[in-house]
Amino acid sequence: MTKPLITHLRHVAIAAPDLDRQLAFYRDQWGLTHTDSDTGVHFLAAEGSPEQYVLRLRKADAKRLDLVAFGAARAEDVDALAADLAGRGVQLVHEPRKLDTPGGGYGFRFFDGDGRVVEVSSDVTTRGFRSIDQRESIPVRLSHFVVNSDNPERTVAWYVEYLGFKLSDTLCLGARGDFMWFLRCNDWHHSFAVSRGPHVAVNHISFEMRGVDEYLRGTGRLLRDGIQKVWGPGRHKAGDNTFSYFMDKAGNCVEYTTELETVDWDHHHPSVYDVTTPDHIDQWGTANLMNEFVAKQMHNDPDRGVFVAPPL
């Protein structure tokens, strides 16, 4: 099966009223590098990633997702995807054009089936990056982005049909049925996932660490700093990645992870993992229980940016 025109996850942009506390958290505690600021918008990079930035922060009256951005290999692919989506009735936020964000590039924006803003771009200038040192507990790259939907089957079908993502695995909750779907656009087990929730919202933003030692050191540092832990540390079955979830200063859930599985694009067969089997939710058995508290934090507040394009 041909891979999609989308090649990878670039960055996530979020907004909140208390921008100063958000910036301080992601820069001083989470371990991202503040690279640029213009008209009140802040761009943060991961030291091990060639992406100009992996997180964008903006001040807004209400907490919201501004957009999720993916990469494409060529400008021709951006044009082809934009034409295909527009021809099938997808609402574009703007046509393909030169971008004026750090690194420039060429891209367009559109609303997905739930009303999130998605950006696809090519030809973005890469940033100088470095190898993360042993025991250095800062993110290497943006790993994946998970959203909530009150109609997740429809959302998953939308990303598969319109953007070419492929299903890697599914989680179910016993007889209550499926509740999370992991989607890939390359050989990583998932760059995007959809979870069943009471409303459209951010579920969590995940950042890859150098290795298990660095992941645990980062987890411990945040615990010592008094950052609210949601769930972890543990190791998932689907994707085989480690997990430690915390709350940022606006009430979004963010994750440290490492060792996310890579799978063969053509030959990986999706499995359904029942999380009522303890090993399927946490192979190590070290995390606190997945309970109503954890679910509430990951359900988040309703996204105020649905079908509303951000100003920048």
TrEMBL record:
* PROSITE patterns tied to this protein: VOC
| UniProt protein name | VOC family protein
PANTHER family in the record, alphabetically?
GLYOXALASE DOMAIN-CONTAINING PROTEIN 5 (PTHR21366:SF14), GLYOXALASE FAMILY PROTEIN (PTHR21366)
Residues annotated as domain VOC? 8-123, 141-259
Q: Which InterPro entries match?
A: Glyas_Bleomycin-R_OHBP_Dase, Glyas_Fos-R_dOase_dom, GlyoxalaseI/FosfomycinResist, VOC_core
Gene3D superfamilies listed in its UniProt record:
2,3-Dihydroxybiphenyl 1,2-Dioxygenase, domain 1 (3.10.180.10)
